[in-house]
Structures are given as structure tokens and as C-alpha cells.
Amino acid sequence: MSYQQSHVYTTEIKAMLYSFGDCKTPSNATAQRIETILKTQIRRFLSTCNDIRIIRGGKNINMEDIAFVIRKDPFKLQRLLDFVEFKNIKGKLESRIESTDSSELKDVEIPFPEKKALKYNWMTEVKGEDVFQLKRLAQIDKLTAEMSKEEYLYFAECRQSSFVYRKGKKFKEFLGFQNINDNIMDSLGYICFEMVYFLTDEIFKKRGVNQSKSNHITVEEVDETAYQISQDNKLFF
Question: What is the DSSP string of 54-102?
């Protein structure tokens, strides 16, 4: 069976929904509807990136093509570049640890990789606070404030859900684009993760502050919110 003909990320999306504030057992139907919308939106996003690639005459979609598409939101762009930088540092650090003899690890000081901020010459300076990110951190604090140790560990595990980790082939088929370098797969996985968060957050905004989040997100809420985002001609993250 082709991955493109079925829902392949139900489990991951349900975990994400819970970590974003949905009930502990989100609906399968809701997760699958989100996956359907997500597939459409990430392919739409990649189509725009591909247009940029064609203009610059590149062979494959690269990180700058992706960054250029979201350039009008400096904070969103900076969050993406911070993610890329973190992945690069993590990869270099893991490589250094692997190249060091395990018997010497206790006595060897492994230098932390140099931080090199990813920046393009067309980028505008980011000014002020990232209110969106601050609000998100506050939401996590609120969600976890009264959790037991076991509940928090499960919540933290759900927050680690990924479209890409150990699912590279499946994710590439999900994206539906062939001219994508492997080195941007994690970034596209991050964008998909953010798309799920953005849709979820918009649903909770529509519910209002006084409406309980204990009721699982419904397919109807997903459809209504996705339609509104499309009408506003916004990116889904």
C-alpha cells in the first residue's frame, strides 16, 4: 500500500495534539483530518519553495528557498533558523562524542561546537520580543503545572513526536517532492510540527478562554478553522 493513499501519522499527530493542549486521548478522526490538511498545506508550501528554486536556477530546494518563503514574518523565520542551528550543533557534538574513545570520555573535555547563526543577506533585523513563543512557553507551564511525575514524563514524550525521526522514507513520500535534499528534511518536519500547533492554537482561540480544553478537538473544528486560515490566505504555521 502506498503511504500517500492512507493516513500514516495518526499516532504522531495525536501525541502532538495532547502536548498542545487537547485531551489525553485525541480523536483518530481528528488526527487523520489534520493529516489530510497538513499534506495539502506542506505540498502547497513546497510548491512555493520550488518556484523560488526555479528562479535562482538551483537543482534542489534548499534552506534559503524555505527561509525566503517565510521572510515576511521575521520571528517565525528566526524560530526556524534557531531550530536549524540547534540541529547543527547537536549533530557536531554527537559526532565529536562518537569519535572519542569511550574509555577516555571521563577525562576528555569535548569542546562545544562554535555557534554560527544562519543568516541571509536579504533578512531584516528582528526587533522586540517573540510574543508568540512567549505565549507558547506560558501555555506549557500552565498545562504541566499540576501534573504528576508520570503524567509529565508522558507529556514530554508526546512533545518529542516527530514526522521525520526514523521515518525518512515515509516522510519524503508524504511530502510528494523528489528534488529535496536530505539535509532539509528535519526543517520540513519542524514546519509540519508547527503547522499542527498553529491549527490547534487557532482552534483554542475560537473556543475562547472560558471554554474547557478537556473536550477533544473535533473534525468540525478542524475544518472550520482550516477554512478560515485559507480564506485569510495565511501560511499554516
Answer: HHHT-SSB-HHHHHHHTTT-HHHHHHHHHHHHHHHHHHHHHHHHHTS-G
Residue the block writes with cell 538551483: 58
Least confident of 31-40, 143-152, 200-209: 200-209
Angular region, 21: left φ>0, alpha ψ -120 to 50, beta rest = left
Q: What is the 3-state secondary structure (H, E, C) of 39-67?
A: HHHHHHHHHHHHHHHHHHCCCCECHHHHH
pLDDT band at 119 (very low <50, low <70, confident <90, very high): confident
Find, among 67, 65, 66, the residue nearest to 78 by Cα.
67
d(C-alpha 48, C-alpha 34), whole Å:
21
Q: Compare 120 and 234 and report the one with higher pLDDT.
A: 120
Closest CA to 7 of 33, 27, 26, 25: 33
* Nearest partner of 67 among 87, 83, 53, 81, judged by Cα: 81
Distance between CA atoms of residues 49 and 7, nearest Å: 25
Q: Look at the chain and count its residues.
A: 237
End-to-end Cα separation, the chain, in angstroms: 30
Helix (H, G, I), strand (E, B) or coil at 180: strand
Q: What pTM value is reported for the model?
A: 0.88
Residue appearing with cell numbers 503524567: 151
Mean pLDDT, the chain, integer:
88
Check the CA dihedral 70-60-45-190 and report its sign. negative
- The Cα 162–Cα 144 span in angstroms is 21
